[in-house]
Amino acid sequence: MNALVRRPLGQTSLSVTPLGLGLAALGRPAYITLGRAEDLGDDRDVAAMRSRTWAVLDAAWAAGMRYLDTARSYGRAEEFLAGWLRERGIAPGAATVGSKWGYAYVGDWRLEAERHEVKELTADRFRVQLEQTRALLGEHLSLYQIHSATAESGVLDDEGVLDGLRALRAEGVAIGLSTSGPRQADTVDLAVEAGLFDTVQSTWNLLERSAGEALGRAYEAGMGVIVKEGVANGRLTVRAAPAALVAAARERDTTPDALALAAVLARPWAGVVLSGAVSAGQLRDNLAAAGIEWDAELERRFAGLAEEPEDYWAKRGSLPWS
After folding, report:
1. pLDDT digit string (tens) for 155-183?
2. What residues does the NADP-dependent oxidoreductase domain cover (predicted)?
3. 10-265+280-315 has which fold?
4. Cα–Cα distance measured from residue 195 to residue 207, given in angstroms and rounded to the nearest whole number
């Protein structure tokens, strides 16, 4: 895979590139990515973060990325993206743009905020946030996703929510869900059973592989699969990567993050894999994944890195917002 060529996302009408850009770490001053203070420094006012977001978007666009992923809870990410699309004169449909509803950003642009986001998966929250998203992204919105649906939340049985999603789908916007937590596979299977969703976005990486078989079933059912957290919020980058990953990256003259993302790209069900880069340099390293040939030797070499889902998500939950 030497080029980011657009392709269908599963059996949906959406068109994506194998690597896409996620804006979770760019639209707000604080996030849980390791090394954030070093990456961003002290200047994280709105203007500085907007400028940084636009610079990464410019680099992603120049590299050929055509899937852009955001959410209502990513601070001002939707606003930054909307301004960039307008300023660069990018027409609706030239990129596939996905956003999410369910969390609200409440951090008030403060690093030390007690809470940065609040989750509410209700029909009222859907209606309010859809209006907010459309006010910013307008016709650019291609995909709207439930943010971090879980089997236990009941959102997949909420007829008020489902009716709203059906109506949005009838208007031509694809609908999907993202998943999180140690029971991702259960949530994915419920989404497949519902027969309503066009896409699913889940965490899968060398440390957390538990959703893999369920994602394969979603793909076989025609859903497009988007993979997030391919570098485990920084745990699979040069800052914290396991020794085996560091050694293999050195041998192949690449970086741990590129190798980790190449592992995700090698999954037959992975439609688009998100980069969470916060600089053009990080994006360049991530993009190298598209040129790495994943093989059986690498698959065997990293099989032992997988953690128990409960352990993985406990570690993720302990990462500080910084």
Report:
1. 999 999 999 999 999 999 999 999 999 99
2. 53-297
3. TIM Barrel (3.20.20)
4. 30
